[in-house]
Amino acid sequence: MQGAHTDDMGVTVRDAVDTDLAGVADIYRHYVENTVATFDYVVPSPAAWLAKYRTIREADRPFVVATLPMESADQIVGYAYLGTFRGMPAYDRSTEDSIYVRPGFGGRGVGSALMAGMLDRANRDNVRQIVAVIAATGGAGSIALHKRFGFTEVGRLRSIGHKADQWIDCVYMQKDLWDSPLR
Fold first, then answer.
1. Which of 80, 70, 95, 72 is nearest to 16 (CA)?
2. Of 74, 76, 62, 63, which Cα lies nearest the Cα of 30?
3. Is the CB of residue 97 less than 8 Å from the CB of residue 131?
4. What is the mean pLDDT of residues 13-36?
5. Cα separations (Å) of 161 from 14, 137, 141, 166?
6. DSSP states of 60-126 as a string?
7. What pLDDT, on the 0 to 100 scale, is given for residue 75?
8. Contact call for residues 154 and 129 (beta carbons, < 8 A)
9. What is the per-residue pLDDT across 138-156, written as a single tens digit (0 to 9) for each?
10. Which of 5, 70, 104, 159 is 20 to 30 A from 90, alpha carbon to alpha carbon?
11. Which domains does the chain have, with CATH numbers?
């Protein structure tokens, strides 16, 4: 685990702890219930978040949260982690990233700070590829964020997900940590 880091915009990124998961769950709940950014239809339970957090940490992968100085010290304004890409052993060094910013906190550098903090903590001994799977509908900001950090678009799956009465394309982006700098 690394310590907290505060960037030039005042965003502090630190390793998540289990007491942060209520804030993480609250942010994600919004995206499940109101957007197509995730294809989940059901909000994960607190037990599911704890299991996911433990799995990520046991795999020595980053799970970070962001706070802002003008907000309550315990209010999480965003989170990011490197999760499992696919469950088969051949994919053990490939991950899928997730980055979510609390509604109303976009445009303050939270997403960039989270991406930087997550990449800084990525262990090249157990992570080679990071894959981003981004809903194309409403995903322009996420696509731009990933491009700024060296991800390249490697494909698009057309009409792959159905949510909110619409078919949604997914953009796949990829970053090879072994062939590129972390940032």
1. 80
2. 76
3. yes
4. 97
5. 33, 11, 19, 8
6. T--EEEEE-TTS-TT---EEEEEEES-SSGGGTTEEEEEEEE-TT-TTSSHHHHHHHHHHHH--TTT
7. 86
8. no
9. 999 999 999 999 999 999 9
10. 159
11. 5-176 (3.40.630.30)
Grade residue 10 by pLDDT with cuts at 50, 70 and 90: confident
* DSSP bridge partners of 173: 132, 153
Which amino acid, 16?
A: A
Tell me which residue has tokens 């989170």: 79
Q: What is the side-by-side strand order in the sheet with 78-84?
A: 5-6, 12-15, 63-67, 78-84, 94-101, 129-135, 166-176, 152-163
pTM beyond 0.85: the answer is: yes
Distances (CA, A) of 126 to 16, 55, 82: 19, 14, 11
- Helix (H) or strand (E) run with residue 42 in it: none
Cα 80 from chain centre = 4
What's the one-letter identity of residue 55?
T
